[in-house]
Amino acid sequence: MEGDERVRSPGARRAVAVARGAVLAAAALLVAWLFLLYEPPRAKRYPDREKVVFWHMWTAKWEKVVGEIVDRFNASQTRWEVVALVVPGGSLKTLIATAGGDPPDVMAQWDPVIPAWAERGALTPLDEILDPKDWAYLEKNMYPAVRAIGTYKGHFYGLSTGMNIWALYYRPSRFREAGLDPDRFPETLEELDAAAAKLFRYDAAGRITRIGFMPRWLSQWSAVFGGSFYDATRGELTLLDPGALRALEWMTDYTKRYGFERVQQFESGLTTSMGASWPFISGAYAITVDGQWRIQDLAEAKESDYRTAPIPPPEGGKPLACWSNGNFMVVPSGAKHKQGALAFMKFWSGVDDPERAAEFYTWGGWLPITPDVANARRYQQYIRENPEFATFVRVLASPNVQVSPPVPIQAYLMNRLGSAEDAALRGTLTPRQAMERLDEEIRREQRLQNAAATQADR
Amino acid sequence: MREHPWYTRLAIHAVLVALALPFCMPLLWMIGTSLKTPDQVYPKMVDTSVASFAKQWWPSPVQWQNYPEALAYVPFPLYLRNTLLLCALNVVGAVGASALAAYAFAKLEWRGRKVLFAIVIATMILPGEVRMIPTFALYRWLGWYGTYLPLVVPAFMGSAFFIFLLRQFFQTIPDDLCDAARIDGCSEWGILWRIVLPLSKPALATCALFQLMGTWNDFGGPLLYLNDQSKYTLAFGLQQFYGAYGGEWAKLMAAATVFTLPIIVLFFLAQRTFIQGIATTGVKG
Asked: Taking residues A205-226, what's their average pLDDT?
């Protein structure tokens, strides 16, 4: 390699020259193969059909699942060809493409985009372009959380490709070890608190070596305590809701009881990644709250020492409650093939054939949007093969499932909610102070947004 | 220069290796993680002993199959081909166009030269985010959206940074050389091609390497302008390892190692030229 030639012996210089030559020759061969001989894989195309451009954020193993669904749709009819494109970080690209007048026809995104983009006029209301029969079917059959997330200011904008529901995962072996009955999971939050206390483990120095249970995410627990951050009748945020405050006070009690610093020291080395890296699998938690997709992680890790249960409510709280979100397909305004987009969305979600769509949902371990898909034969078979999954399907149908407030600043709100929760858990602010500060921040942000919107209208 | 005794050289090397180790740690972590199973990526339980900490850095057992699996996970050869094509075009375009402009600013006398040079430098102040939407609209109006043209043509317009860098370097070449050539009847193009450019190899190599690394690592351009997966580049393709619910970290690190390897090899091959160019032009970082 290059360097100070003066200190090299002739042998060393020869060796360097040979090594350099070898590297250059290998590079030349690789380039020649890439440009002259390599044939990339080619997807099947249907040149006579109308092209429906579908952008999605599914990567890793889910990209192949989505690809299979797209192939099935293309093979099922002769008018449309859906061309799927993986667009990691697609929000920016979609907004710029929409502003530039060349958006995709349908896009899969996380649900916060619905209020934010609908407010900007970047989305097509689906209730205005769906066949009345299909819209009537959806109105009557979709789960409450699906309707709540997809609706903004009276219009329906997004159809879910998979809802997310949260419930409790627990280890029966840890229960038995602590003298608890794993077949009788706590039915109230008070019982859960008592069980958690018995499941914590410490080393000789008093450091935590296993967490019995540690609540996180105020949005989850607000729903369980019967609180809500949004009043749908008045169309207003209610960040100082008494249920939400009680939830935050209960969460703060946990960190006071077990020590925020001690818990943080333990959790700092953990991760919430998918697969076998999940801390529940590694034994860091005896009980934890997480989503239905962990069932697949546990299957991949060949873990059988687990069960699931709905989050138990406190006294005065709501049973079968949790916070929910999901992946939604939306049609950008300016899309050129809206009917093609709708056809694909109905195919995937099971509006036109729940039995066929049930298979797709089992591929991804996703939760469907209507009971017709959940009750389909293939989906029921999946539940029989993965019995703990039934907990999530049961909670999905509950009217107590809550979603993020349908406001344009939803992403900002949820981010600041996390900061408020953190301040309360650390003890920097009391729960009430933290929520009052949050309320003030959000009101200020809403005023700014309204002022900007008014300015833009002029 | 007198050679140091072996123990002095050993001591110097030991100190340099110790100082270099923190800088190498991200690379070592990347390579170590690329050979792990998914559950090894993060440790089972936090253990603060030094032995346990050291153990986390290296996999056991070593999963060599992560590499072929990672390369098969995405169409790696296709993305590599696309990346090499874009790199070649961008390097030729950026270096060629910038050299032409820099020669005009450095060696030719014409009215408005200084003002125009100041304007060229001033364009560096404008952040890319500000230019994003108008640039997108321009390319769409030109019909370039979905093609490689937005990722290649701007390089042929020159880069303000490279124009500045090369101008500075060209100014160190004595004017007498150019004057002598003019007296002998050489055209300006001839002076550039036969005298100035051959004397500017380190600076040109620096520009080429910077452009190469910039294009190799470019994520924003392909994200915004490419609508066909068959045109995707490596930097963009690496994102496909990271899913909506988390990532295939081991495979991602394997792909990232392969992605980084050509740049490391290139650096070692052209180390002296690169460092000479940076030292001569005063470019840092």
From this structure: 93
